Structures
1.
Amino acid sequence: MGTGGQATRLVSESGGPLVEFTASRYCAVLSEDSQLASTVLAVSAKHSRGAAVRYSITGGNRDGLFTIDQHTGIITLAAALDHETHTAHELVVWGEGGGAGATTRVQVRVADVNDNPPYFLHPRPEVTVVEEDYRHLPATIATVVAEDRDFMDHHGLLYTVRGDGVDGYAPGDAFFTINSLTGELIQLKALDRDPPRGKAVWKVKVQVRDGQALWSRQAMQRHLAKIATEEKNRKKRNNKRLQYPIKRGIKIRKRENTSELKQRENKLPKHTQPNSYKDKGLNSAIRPRTHKRTKRTIGTTLASDQRRGKGIKSIKEFRLAGYNGGEIHLAPRHRRSEEWPVDEQVTSEEINDEGDCESDDTGPAGRRLGGSSLGRESPEGSSQGLHGLGGSRVHVAETEVTIRLKDVNDNPPVFPNTTMFGVVQENGPIDLSVVAVAAWDADDDSEGSNARITYGIQKNAMHEGTGEAIFSINPNTGLVRTAVCCLDRETTTQYQIQVVATDGGGLQGTGVVMVRLADVNDNAPRLEQKLWEAEVDETWGDGPPDNSTLLKISVLDPDTSNYFHYRVVQSSGWGWQHFGVRSVGAVGHIYARQVLDYEDETHRRGFRFMVQVTDRGRGGWQDARHLDSAWVVVRLRDVNDNPPQFTRQNAHITVKEDAKLGTLLAALPAVDPDEGGQQEVEYRVEGGWDAVSVDSAGEVSLSGALDREAPDGAVGVARILGVDRGHPPLTATATLTITVTDVNDTPPLLLPPTLFHVTESADPTPLGILIATDHDVWALGHGPPFTLSLAPSNPPHVLAHISLTFNSHLDSGRGGAELRTVAPVDREQHPQLDVDVLVTDAGGLAATHTVTVIIDDTNDNPMKPGAKTVYLWKPQGGAAEAPLGRVFVEDPDDWDLNDKTFSWVGSPHPLFSLNTHTGELLASSQVREGRYELHLAVSDRLWGQKDVGANVTVAVRVLPPDALSHAAPLTLTPTTPEALTRGWTPQESGGRLGRVLEGVQQVVGGGTHTVEVVSVESRPALPSNRSDPVSAVWVCVKEADDEYMDPIKLRGLLALNSKQLEAITNLTVVPEEAVTELTSGSHQHPSGSQLDPPSVASRASTSLPLQVVDTNSTSLVTPRLSRSHDCHVTDHLTCSPATCLNGGRCLAGDRCVCPGGSWGPQCKILSRTFFGKDWAWVQPLPPCLPLTISLRVLTRRPHALVLYSGPLAPLLRHSHHPPTPMLALQLWRGRPQVMVEGGARSIKLEVPTVINDGYWHTLHLRLSTQGVAVVVDFCGRNHHNNTLDNSLCASRASWRSPGGLSPWPIQVGGLAHVLPGPADHGWRQAPTSRPLDGCISHLRLNGQLVDLGEPPYSRGGQSSCHTQDVACRGTCGHRGQCVGGLDQPQCECELGWAGPGCTTPTVPVTLTSASYIKMALTLTPAPQVVTTQLRLRTRGIHSGSLLSLGHPRQDAAFMLHLRSGLACVKERVSRRGDRSVCVEGRPLGDGEWHTVTTQLHGHSLTLAVDDQDGWRRNESLPALSVTTDVQPDDQSLPFQLDEELRVTVGALSAHAIILISSCITVLVLVCVDDVRVCGRAVPLPPAVNGSRWGQVTSWHGLESGCSAPDSCLNTTCVAPLTCVSNWGVATCSCGPGRQVVGHGCRDVDECLWQPCLHGGSCHNLQPGYQCVCGPAHTGDHCQWTHIATAPHPLTAPLAIAALILSILMLVVVGVLVSVRLRRQGVARGATNQKNSQSMTKLRAADSEDGQGDADHRAFLDCLKVQLPQEQSTTIEKEVCQEETNSSTSHSPATDTGDGRTSTRNVVVAKVGPGTRVKKQGPGHDLLPAQDDLRAYAYEGDGSSSGSLSSALSGLREEQPEDPSAKALAPGFVEVMDLLKNLPDAARSPALASIPSDKQAPSAGGGGETVGTSHGARIYTITDTTPTTAKRTTSKVSTDSPSPRFHEDESTVC
């Protein structure tokens, strides 16, 4: 601080001042917004003598702004400061003390703050600009100037622009910008005044902001200049040189901490940090170039280094760093770490040389003792060198610049509608108004004539007769009028003229006016025919008529505005009064007004009458010019409108209860009036206790026993139904009331109680009174009085202890008896007395009833020690405690448990628990298999016995799950579980149970099988005999291979051999009862829990309850099992050895590796062949309704049993038992029949369609609570002639209550036993016993496919349909199958494969949301049958169309689509609405390939996914309804295919969008492959755009192949895992074939799972594995078997005949060839003597050399090929000449010296139009025509045996017909074809060389393919005979024509 200031002082006597201030001048800076009482500074003065100094302000304190503390000298602010009023204040401070004083001066500078808003000098300016003026742009159109009273904002205001032309536009597209520093408004682009985007006035809003820390260049320069001047003065004052010269732009660097620099930079505001520039539309005048990395230095800021106390200033550069929202920010320039930081403040006190305070107008320059906003607004890291500019306060001012556009004529007139329409009446006068047209001009109508429009006609219509213009237009109004009169609409319906609108500048716009002539009625109507004929159905029933249209008559009239009216002319002919006609539009609909009855003879002859039509001209019906008439002839068709008529509608009959069967009750015949009364009537009976039947004559007789005592047995009503044979059949009903008179057939019964108790050893005592009753009619003497007595059948001990005293007065005189004991009874001898009581009624009918007397026990015997053995059969994994029974001691008493206590001897066993009160033992769930010894004791308090020994031995055996799942029950009576197990042990057998097991072993196979007991349990008593106990023994059988016998087979064998078992066990085998309580309702999907393997036995379970069979000394504890009732389809998500069928292997518990020919994830084989003597057993029917059975059958035999579910042996049956359940499906006379027994009525259905025609036919059978229905081929082929009659494809019957379903195995193809007799089972009929000779496939039970490859039990037969397979000649390959039946067999490839042998993979395409393929089919489909197939791959839940089919002219569509990831199919047909079917149980979005198949057969709709098994298939089959033939919503015809069908793949077609609007196409990524319609593959572009089945018409957005983005790009896996992309899903794993073990990945040895089938060897590859197959198998898992042609039985005889015929043919061919050669030689000599001479010389030379066969070969090579005439001579000359030269060199082939032959000369011949011979090498051979037998003669001399194939290599190639070519041997082709297809052809050298599809044939191994042409292959056959001259021959081999594949056939879908 300087010290040169002056002050007023009082000088002391010694010359020195007494009072002196510390400074002569004080300086302070205070911001103008400082708060009141803020401290300015403190002055300080001292008195030399130490006196106190007091201070006061004596001058300069204007307005009292400051106050001073008189004691401290602190100056504070007393009033508000204003920089704009006074920038500084000079205060005079007086200090006084001890009588002396001094003054000093205090200068207070007021620092400016941003407290004033900016203001515009010229608000709301307006500018005028010419529109569309592109010149001189960009250009400044206005300058907006604003000022700010604040000094800091004088040159730092920031301008921004918004509004029209700026808002909503990108910076590069805006119309305006503004110079943010100068306010210059710049127009960037030309402005448009005209709509739609233009405006006449543009309003631009300009904003100005202050306080943004933004300076202009001028302000920055002035600031830097002032800093330089200040620095210069400072140098002079300090009188020293700076160590570092300061110059503008020079960087002063020093070492500093890099982290501190970065920290300070991070503290800068975001918009001021380095590198924060963002270009957002800054004006080009100030916008830095962003493509350069240079930074423009604005200036330097000096800061004083206060910490060092030196005058050296650090320099900090600033640059134009960013622009955001129209604002420019000054940010510190980013320096390297060695540059000096700027973090110091300016010195607080500085005085210049003149004693003045240094100041800077830009901000404060001093130390402040008090806080202010300036300090608060300068955070750390901001630019303190700019003196606080850019504080937080911001003021914004806005003005609006109005830009008015001056219009120019730049817009032509425009008609709003380019096409306008007008109407004028025909035949009208001149000058009629047509239409007023109006144009619009976007130009300003106030600018001269720019928008002034005139109208004219540019192109007028001319009158044909006069050549005059027809129309005129008003040039001002645009009104178009007619210029001529009398326009005729029938000549020209409409005219087209072109009008023009012209504005004042000559610009024009045109429009088209379509003038339509309005019709007037000036032409007469004419009926299209003069005679209309119709044949209609008679009126149904008695009428009235239904008012339906019988005939439509139409009229022709050139007029269009007419309304036609029709009428029937009265008395115009016979029957006119029966008909009426109504007008429907322009058509007349004739309808019946009265009943039309075909049975009326007068009606039957027909009707003839006249109808008239009028167009209602001026005269109406009286105007003959507008009237026409025609005759109508109507003939009637007889319909089945009359039900049969019974002779009696009601009848009553009385019959005795004991009437014999067959008794005639009544005769109720019926007659059908239709068809002249000759139609047959079928009779049925409903009601009548099911004991009444009716024959074909209507005679009602008794067919069952009557029982008056049964409920409602006294009176019954039988309804006799008469059904005619019409369509639909009509029914009439007659009622027969039957009254049954009573006979004394019911014996009397004892009324309860019949159970009594008496205490053991008690004295004689009465027990009770017995009374009786009788259900017969007492009034007829069939009841009381009753007589009661002891029956003679009572044993002696009963008579010794019981007496019965009869008393006739008891029970009100009906009679009764007293029962009492006559002696004490010992319970140990007789625990129960069964007393037989004989009861007799008044009619003498008697019955014996049992009265039970229980002897109550007393503890009258002491205990003795006992031992017990318990056999515990525990299920594996059982988690519950097992009861073992009670501890056993020898004690005759059994009711003394209350007197006994039980205890352990020693310590209790930890695995067993004892109930000390009851003696019950329990085994822990932790007990394991083994033998346990338990030591127990029993005490009896009554007898005083203690600790009597009672040891228990427990033998535990664990039952594996296979034993439980393969168990089958054997139900026996009369016996109890205790009686069965008594005396039986697992080691020694014995007892009744031992005999049972012995019998089971005999019936299942003898000693090679082991029978094991699984469970013994009691069953409820039979309803027929409730007194006999029933027990069940569950057994399983181990066969010789130690595998369990299939439970289906075991149950069947037990049922089949029940009589043998009864003979061995002396017990009665009770057949398994049918399930009578059937569940009803739709099948529901399982809840998702894992299901057990399919088995009709009990399911293995860890929670099965255990039951105890206690026989005192032994106990058998087994699980309680029950038969599974699987009504729903089971689905297996994982595999196990039990679920992989037909030799499949379970791989890692995930999937089955299946052998070839199997199907689905479980390796099922779906078809089986039966040869007329075979049969197979499969699982029983599901015991639930509704039940659907479907199958496909192929046979030529008229009679066959297809399926049978019923008893396997005669059963023990009483007469009152219901019939045994039975279901049979058979063929009789080629027609399918269904027989159902066991319900309320016997049902037999027959479908009148023959199916033994050698084609596959599908049968559906449905049983429900309403009845039974059977359908053939989905009823999809019977809508002929637009009818909906299903009578030819379906049959159905109803029932009141369904019977049970058979629990026995289903027998397919035949019976394993003798056909059961109807009498043995209560049936009215039995099925046929003839086995099936044919094939069955796709057997489904409730949708689940049944495996027919390895049925549980079978005899004969063969898996797969052998009959169908051999029908296809050759092989269909591993991925194809033979289909089409026996008459039209063809190969069908699996989806995804195509080509011959199904070896070519198809090419998929990828679809997105906008992808589509539209195509037209060229196949000829069958109507009402639609099948589609495709492969699909997608990921996630998508919705959208996959495949749609529609008609361009019909309201019908068929679409396959995805709905939330599920496959769905929708169908719509006119007037019926939508129908949709989805597969809910199989989502498709898992990224795997899926197959989707749809079938539409008439009204039947099927959708299936993948293997089509279970829940992966859904069907809608209206024809299976039992209630009616056609559903009410199915009255319309189904979706039909024809040649106009349009197919769309991907995005919805127009038809599907309109008809099926609920489907939204949002497919994201879906791959589609191998799309087939009606079995034919349709083309999928871009790979294939057309085929013989369809042509692509358009496609969009497709991508060939199927690939997904790599999902591992953004996925990181933790080591050792790696990312694996599975088609869109990233998974962290060890990779295929590896698994995590510990902290690393280890290879999985897949060979442990034995994935190689058919004996293949597995080699672990790490990762992966490889199967090495034997010679007979191939495939990745050796799953395929090499296919060999099956030998035919006529092979040997045909081979001998063919060989003889071949020899004869060779002789004939040789003679014919010689003759032809001679003729050709003569002709050749006449045409070309020169060539002939040279050949003759060649032959002579060869003869001389002994080469006779060489010249013969040369002549053969010159044989003519079948060529066009213009080519034949040229080629013949060339080839013959060169071949002759070649033959002289003897070089067709040369010997290599090592026994191999090399061919040098190759000939490629192309036969057909444009044929040429291509020569390679010095010589070549010529290929003869492929139908020329001379090739055979040529190879006959010295050629190898294998080369015989050249004679037939091209025999099947079709050649163009040439009338000059004749067949030399017509039978030769057939002979050689037969030879080639013989079974021994592969071993025959003569036929082994016939080429196949995969490799070229060779003779002796020397064959080589050299070329192909038109499907034929050319081979070079080299003779390997070791001769000097080798022979080379060119051959053409065609592809074998068999088998035929789908893509080569044009069959009907």
Note: The CA atoms of residues 999 and 1063 lie 9 Å apart.
2.
Amino acid sequence: MAALWLAGSAKNDNTGILATVALVYLSFSIVNADSKAVTTTLSTKWPSTPLLLEASEFLAEESKAKFWDFVDATQEIHLEDHEETNISYYHYILQKAGEFLTPVQANLLKFALSLRAYSATVQTFQQVAAEDPPPEDCSAFINVHGEKSCVPDRLEVLLQGALERPKPYLFKGDHIEASLRTELPVVILYGEIGTKEFSRFHKLLRSKSDAGRINYVLRHYVANPSEEKVLLSGYGVELAIKSTEYKAKDDTQVTGSELNATVINENDPVDEVQGFLFGKLKQLYPEIKEQLKELRKHLVESTNEMAPLKVWQLQDLSFQTAARILAAPTVDALMVMRDLSQNFPTKARSITRTVVNSDMRKEVEEHQQYFKETFGLHPGDSALFINGLSIDLDVQDIFSVLDLLRNEARLMEGLHDLGIQGDELHDLLKLNVQPADSDYGVDIRNPAIYWINNLEMDSKYNTWPSNVQELLRPTFLGVIRQIRKNFHNFVLFVDPTDESTHELLKTAEMFYTNDIPLRIGLVFVVDDSDGADGLKDPGVALFRAFNFVADELDNMNAFQTIISMYSKVKEGEKLAIEHIIGTLEKDFSNVEVTSILGADSAYDRNRKECTDYYKQSGLGSLPIALYNGMPYQREQLDPDELETVTMHKILDNTAYFQKVVYLGELNNDQDVVDFIMNQPTIVPRINSRILSSEREYLDLSADANDGVDDYSHFAFLKSEEKSAAVANSISYLSKRDDKYIRPLTFWIVGDFDDSSGRQLLYESLKHLKSSNNLRIGLINNPSSEPTKENTVIARAVWAALNTQSINNAKNFITKLAKEETAKALAEGADIMEFAVGGMDNDGFKNMFETLNLDFILSHSSFCKDVVKLKGGQRAVISNGRIVGPLEENEVFNQNDFHLLESIAIEAAEKIKIKIQMLAVEEDLASDLVMKVDSLLSSKSKGEARIDLQFFEGQSSAIKLRPKEEQVYFEVMAITDPVTRDAQRLSSFLLVLNQLVNVNLRVFMNCQPKLSEMPLKSIYRYVLEPEITFTASGSFASGPVAKFLDMPQSPLFTLIINTPESWMVESVHTSYDLDNIYLKEIDGGVAAEYELEYLLLEGHCYDVSTGQPPRGLQFTLGTGANHEIVDTIVMANLGYFQLKANPGAWVLRLRKGRSEDIYKIYSHDGTDSPAGTDEVTVVLNSFKSKIIKVKVQKKPDKMNEELLSDGNAENEGFWESIKRGFTGGPKPEELKLDKEDVINIFSVASGHLYERFLRIMMLSVLKHTETPVKFWFLKNYLSPTFKEFIPHMAKKYGFQYELVQYKWPRWLHQQTEKQRIIWGYKILFLDVLFPLAVDKILFVDADQIVRADLKELRDLDLEGAPYGYTPFCESRKEMDGYRFWRSGYWANHLQGRKYHISALYVVDLKKFRKIAAGDRLRGQYQGLSQDPNSLSNLDQDLPNNMIHQVPIKSLPQYWLWCETWCDEASKKRAKTIDLCNNPMTKEPKLEAAVRIVPEWQDYDQELKQLQKLFQEGKLNGLTRSRTDDVTSTEDHVPHVEL
């Protein structure tokens, strides 16, 4: 409150403020420390991409038309002539883009440019261009089927013979100017929009494309990339306060960074320090700015020293922080929340003095009850909802949130344009209009089906109970109940001559013989022509043979007979006439076979009916299987799969039948099959076009006063305006002529002067008779240029609709739709001959005779330009959803209209209820339902929206009201201000509030009775609503995390929290970011990170087993270089990950066993068409990319396993091991067996542990003759280490490799850096290393080796996957610290040893074979949810799993550690570990010098090498990666992606 008093009262008393400043200044004048700061930036590897290109990609996501309009608009000014300032360039982009965007979308464009969200998209095109590659000295060029040129005039030459050359590969993200026409050549232009060279090409190609001569494709290409990198945002940075219980800081002196002065001197926007609001004070009193600055500095220094709080002071911190936030003025509350939560450790002491209002506490507790019941939230939990959609900032990165905001804006602005506002708008938004995922089936009560058995009638089932109540009798799980009712009906549609038919029939026979309670039916689809001859056509022959045996005996015997016919067919052959004749002659020797099979057969009944039933059902290609009328998916018809799937269907549906019997909906007197077939999901006909999940909608939200009567005006309207004009001018037909809101509108599109169009019209009118929910509008799409002569029916229909009552018009149009009417009119009959009773003949005749063709021309233009139909093509548009174009002979009948209505009616009815409340006139209301349905269905993703019951929250919520008369986002956040979530959420909400109009509520969800400090880190979330500029109009330095006025006494570790799919690395900093101690640094620390890779993640399954193929390897590369990175599939979820950067990549199975045994079966989420072996994956976004790949074993490799005991695995990889050799002989001279290399894995973070790591490596090398290869986890290594290691490798002649693995998103995340590193030691051993590495030794960084590790590598592990050394028991004074001797561990180990994780050896072959990695991850997932378990993660986990994954105990001498082992055993020690000592807490460096005599010699030797390296660097003699020093990152030849 002091802040408000000081800023308010002092305003009238300048002397008062000066006196206060002077007084406080004097009281603090003794303090004279410099302000310390830490800054963090994150940039891309690729050059900064032009903002104009990024803006074009933003528009491309709005629509194709807007992208091309924007490209055209930016041709007027060539940027190279107008580059006065960055700010004028930026405003030029916003102005041009603003012509095509609404105000909300324009704001979101500013945010997208600030995020640089589309930089990755532009860079993808750049990488594709580099693959092409560009001609020399070319700033724009074209590629015509592989031939390139920089000169527009050469286009004609390149087009000659273009179609004879291979077609280029087009990506889903390619910009294609018109619809792709396969008969035309493809011209790809690579260029930079807005440059003169681009403009010359663009105008030429645009004109050629408009003339229908070429397909014009545009790809971005920047000939002269920027020197700058892209500075990213959308990530968090924390400075976590480290425990200094064990001193782990290196004593090597490093100077601080020279920080950019502008960074330090910029004012923190929330300038509240100890109750003083300095931001306001500086505005009010600019003349004392310097004194205020000094006062602020001293206040900061006095508050920032963080003495620990007593337990009683901690208890109420959550409520006290909330009280401080809520006491601030509403406009400042979010800023205060951000300041307090992000700087909590420095603010906590002052917060403890805050008094909590009892009303607020009571209200928070009341709300918490509601949060728990509604959202499952506990005190301290957070949640965020935007328009009712749940946003989890832990899972959804800011780029996904931007997409969501854009989509919501489109929805809300569309509804707003339709005149719907405020609460009504948000009520409509909450409707889920996406059709339910119900499957549809066809009616199986058809005489065309031959039922082989009948559970209710056949004597075979006489002993089974027949009461439906039997379903409710308890039974064992998974048991199929045998009840004498036809609950389960299985129908096969087969072509007898198809090769798959035999296997399907065998499966059906297996169901029958094993007494599965399944009624089996067959439909034979054979030639249905009149003259079909069974002596020539095996299909017809088998059909007649079946009928014959069925008549003689029964259907079951007929079924057995045809099974025996198929048994005569040898593998690779097809069913032939002789197979059928042979069986009949054998079984029915006294019958004349030719009379049964021949053309005049008496056994031909049902042949046509079978084919008619198949065609009418609309089920698609044969074979088809139905379960209770529901079709199986194509891949489920594999015989093995069919059996399993059918059993599952029986079990799953049993639960449904139990429910309906229990509820009394089905009883014993009802026919079960009738009951099933009367369900709403059973339809007369399945139409895959209607049921397809890929749906296209018209934009009907445009405001339009236009009609279709003036074609010269209509032709120049935009697409959405044409749709609105057509909607405005349609007169509708309905079942009855009454005032009623009809929720469904069908537009019938076709040429009504052509029989196909009339047929569609006639079928729709037949359906209309049975539906009062529907109204029908007609749109004419003429096949040829309209004239008075060829548009008689179209004009008559239009005239009738506009002059007659609905009933008369309907009757008249029904007459016109009949073929005999069209025939009579063609022969010269007068239209008035077909008038119906009650018609206004004069009105009709007058309009018909005076009607011009403008409405037909307008309809034709609408069909061509908007619906994308060719002349005469038919379509049905259902509430804006385009069903079509229908193929020339495609059947679309009354049953299809019935299906279309049944899937659309539910959503339309929901909308109708809301629209009725608006009290709009009926016709307008029906229009509004159609338009709202189209909008919501096209833009809404169908996620559940939570209806946020807003309670007022008088004293426990921040409330910001939206601006009136504008669309607003409904935003609700629930948070505890002293949690990690609040640190990020506060920044996000501040930016959101600047971006868009919000109705915001932030409810406090405080935790009572805290017992420890809730936040132990200072946090920044890097996010800006718009690009910022300097006073001179240049771009400001870009997004940066700034920690200003930092306390100097704590030891901090810097952690960067990025989106899941980003892999970042620290670059260009000499300071130890693991141990930041500001007291010892001048100036501050500038941390720079680089986005090293974007992650491609995936899940892989073997289609035959449904299981992940453990050990399968994928590679990711380009067309030219197949293997750039590779990965191994793990058994947990079949997960794999690959590192890449923006571009188009090819995913393949790795050469070797993976490619030999498996082939890619299918893929999802990729850019390749289905069924291709090479899978193209385009990474063109900062968002996560997750693909699904199914693989299948090759037929001749069915019995082979990837993880076999053979030694021929992955020979190709061994080449890369040899390539990694640094120093010594050249790689090609190296002749090593696999066993000749000792592979050693280690992890380190922070300069001290990297120093220990180098010493450990040196100690290893001094004690072995065998070549050594070190494997380091790259994720946490400092730039200094990565720069020095190649030189150390060269000096000492070892190989090394940096391995990386991103912690998978589905595996429980650790937040502390130390625990994350522990996790990497144990959780990913099966996927970190290539399959060729048989054994790996882990050696802790702080170990010194005194023996040859070859001995440990060769040790027999006696079948165990790994060997660890047990903890020493010989130092008796430490007994009190041996936790494993009592409690949980003593009970769990049952006499076994507890092992230490500082040194272990892993037999990777065995480890993978027994799926040890998958087991360890599974156990970790279960245990890690409890924060109190796995306190020493890397050690507790293998010891906890000792019964499932056995440990071989290594001899004690392999690891000696002073803390646990006595002095007598030291002389036998082969390695010495510098364990922490919980009794003395001696710092590591002191312990190393004291315990290990040789440690200092090693240290000095390495310091000398580092000194030489640094001197060489300063003199320019050393490069960070010399040409002859090779790092073999990722164990394959590397090209940076």
Note: The mean pLDDT is 83.
